[in-house]
Each structure stands twice: as structure tokens, then as C-alpha cells.
Specification:
It comes from Sulfuricella denitrificans (strain DSM 22764 / NBRC 105220 / skB26). This is Transmembrane protein. Keywords: Membrane, Transmembrane, Transmembrane helix. The chain is mainly alpha-helical and 117 residues long. The protein is 75% helix and 0% strand.
């Protein structure tokens, strides 16, 4: 597998994992309120780039790399303020957001008009 394909698959895997994490976090694992919280709707923006990421659309990779910074910021804030399971999940959110960010920017760079390959 070449590096561009690896970056593509890393982007897909980290985005889907982040969607699953956010759903599980806010519905079952550590919701703000028992029975789930309305923070589950934070998943909706992550669904917007999913079709373009799955198809390898360079433009989607470019704007999605900026969108993911919101989730990185949320993870950092919650990792510093929440304790227990929520703090741990925030650490996982940070890791997934970092993987997605770097894989998307490197994929977009490698698929540009003037990139070597």
C-alpha cells in the first residue's frame, strides 16, 4: 500500500472512530445527564465530510482538517476539566482528532497538482 492510500484509510478510520466515540460517549459511556445528553448532536458536523472522505475528494480533506480542530479543542477542554471516564474519553477524542488532522493535511498535500506522488 502506498503512502497516499495509507493516509486515506487513516483518515477514514479516525473519522468513523470519532463518530462512534462521540455517539457512545454522549449516549452511554459518560453522558452529562443520565440516559444521554443533547451533546450527542455534536456528531452531526462529523457526518458532513464523511462522503467526501470516503471518496478521497481533496477539497473535502482540506476543509475537514479545519473542522476537526473544534473536536480537538473540545477534547483538550474536557480532558482538563472532566474526571473519570469522561476525561479518558476526551483523551481518546484528542488522539483521534490528531490522527485525522495530520492524515487529512498530508493526504491533501500529496494529492495536490504539484505534489510528486
Amino acid at each position: 500500500m502506498n503512502r497516499t492510500a495509507a493516509l486515506h484509510y487513516a483518515s477514514i478510520a479516525s473519522l468513523i472512530a470519532l463518530i462512534v466515540l462521540c455517539l457512545a460517549w454522549e449516549l452511554w459511556l459518560a453522558p452529562l445527564r443520565p440516559g444521554g445528553s443533547s451533546l450527542v448532536f455534536k456528531v452531526l458536523p462529523l457526518l458532513l465530510p464523511l462522503p467526501g472522505i470516503l471518496r478521497g475528494k481533496r477539497y473535502t480533506y482540506q476543509w475537514a482538517s479545519m473542522l476537526i480542530l473544534l473536536y480537538l479543542a473540545e477534547g483538550v477542554v474536557r480532558a482538563m476539566s472532566d474526571k473519570g471516564m469522561s476525561g479518558t474519553l476526551a483523551g481518546v477524542e484528542i488522539a483521534l482528532a490528531v490522527v485525522f488532522f495530520f492524515s487529512t493535511i498530508f493526504y491533501a498535500n500529496r494529492t495536490g497538482k504539484h505534489s510528486p506522488g
